[in-house]
Amino acid sequence: MKTYNHIAFNKPYMTGNELSYIEDAVRSGKISGNGKYTKLCQEFFQEKFNFGKCLLTTSCTDALEMASILINIKPGDEVIMPSYTFVSTSNAFILRGAKIVFVDSTKESPNIDVSKIEQLITKKTKAIVPVHYAGVACDMDEIMRLSEKYNLYVIEDAAQAINSYYTNNKGETKALGSIGHFSTFSFHETKNIISGEGGMLVVNDKKFKDRAEIIWEKGTNRNAFFRGEVDKYGWVDIGSSFLPSDLIAAFLWAQLEKLEDIQQKRKSIWNLYFNELNDYCQENDIIIHKIPKHKTNNAHIFYLVFNSLKERNSMIKKLNNKKVNAVFHYLSLHKSEFYKNHYNGEELPWCDFYSNTLLRLPLYFELTNEEIKTITSIIKND
Ligand SMILES: *Cc1c(COP(=O)(O)O)cnc(C)c1O
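Above: inputs. Below: predicted complex with pyridoxal-5'-phosphate.
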């Protein structure tokens, strides 16, 4: 009988320079926020992806909370977002008293169904928060059209979407995170580029640039003071301590230096899964993750979608029994213990469908071709 070694769902990948950059930061004596490595990372993102002002945060959750403060969310304001997402997408606005208006996913992918958004816009609607699930773009043309027509902010939850692109109807290709008024990224150890915990707010709308920096620095104009723009520094607004230590940024910088290698490796893993499983999935009525036209793949997640909860769970069990840690993903937020009693919208059948039927396979830099073939052969052999 074949014996199997344990295959984890995720393993954080260290590129090699993390410790030496952290050591450099420690020896420099400057380990609080907004130091050398923070600036290196922020400039890297601004240049490589044509982002507006970038501010590192301690998480994507924090970056979402900053965006919520920046657009002055007040009790009763409405914020439109998919229900198939992580809790932080909602919590950031709930914390400021917003009502969340959840939208279904599409039949084709877990992303927000943009054809259902317009009918949900009211006088109280303040923002739309598209989530680029698995790093694959939402239909941003329609979201930006609605944003202009109804004067709404767009905050891209790009937690999973580093190094992924969208080609709009004018033929322009833009990095995810550069399209909305704001976007938020995560460097949690489960993402493509990591710093343990970590995140970033991107401020594309220039009019929020200065205030973003103030909110980031506990409501003070400290940064303007250090740049010599004001002659004293003090308390000028609400804010919090959203900026990470430069030690976190030093770790992140080591990752960013290897961004291309990491992405290339992840894409080759993704492609091997696809090639090994495509025929099998076609024959067995399993939906394989496909990348639509005008959108790119950043190989954040490789997923399969089964016909029912029972089929999905039995595949998870089959893989787990052979020591492969395959997992499901989000549970509909509108049905969560916290929100179900506040939810008075329509049924969201596609969101529920993905909660019940989506399965994610292990995907990380150090996953070997042999391990991938072990996984795909377990899937294919009954
Ligand atoms: C990971 C993730 C977050 C949260 O990121 P943190 O950095 O852990 O706060 C938010 N939204 C989405 C869609 C995510 O995948």
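Residues 59-61, 85-86, 88-89, 131, 157, 159-160, 186, 188, 199 surround pyridoxal-5'-phosphate (CB under 6 Å).
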